[in-house]
Amino acid sequence: MEISHAKQVINIDAKLTERINELLSHYPADKKKSAMLPVLHEVQDAHDNWLSIELMDRVAEILEVQPIEVYEVASFYTMFNQKPVGKYMFEFCRTSCCAIRGAEDLMDYTCSKLGIKEGETTPDGNFSVVGVECLGACGYAPMLQLGDYYKEHLTKEKIDALIDECRDNKVNLH
Ligand code: FES
């Protein structure tokens, strides 16, 4: 697991606590660990899309588990970020169908257009680019996930347009 030493303001406020409690209510009181995935999603969404060690430790307290159990889950799934990421995170599928249809070239194109390497974030904090495993939209390859949405049948022209829309604040993430 890559450890980030970036500081994160932790804010588990009343609204987030209420949402977490609602999620926990779906599981037996002595099996809070079962709610780990939805709770991590909820907590990450409320904290600029990343989970610091301190925040994962808070989740461990809430779920009444050891911190290592939260680290293991958060570091296994690519949808959880252990370092600050850009507001617009381009998650390129690089598995077989997308790879055959040019995903690697499109990711390289996007990185060079943004002046970053894969796994990096632009200095203004707006864009990140990462490669991920199959996102289950193989029939629409090549594709990427941006926030809660899939962008499919990608081309360089579509990438150009998408970046412009992000810069113009015209892209919904949720
Ligand atoms: S291979 Fe890309 S979505 Fe499945």
UniProtKB/TrEMBL annotation:
Cofactor(s) of this protein: [2Fe-2S] cluster
Annotated [2Fe-2S] cluster binding sites: 93, 98, 134, 138
Keywords noted in UniProt: 2Fe-2S, Iron, Iron-sulfur, Metal-binding
InterPro entries tied to this protein: NuoE-like, NuoE_dom, NuoE_N, Thioredoxin-like_sf
Binding note for cofactor: Binds 1 [2Fe-2S] cluster.
Species assigned in the record: Flavobacterium cerinum
Molecular function via GO: 2 iron, 2 sulfur cluster binding; metal ion binding; NADH dehydrogenase activity
Protein biosynthesis found in the keyword field: no
Family as reported in the entry's similarity comment: Belongs to the complex I 24 kDa subunit family.
Record's protein name: NAD(P)H-dependent oxidoreductase subunit E
Pfam family, one: 2Fe-2S_thioredx
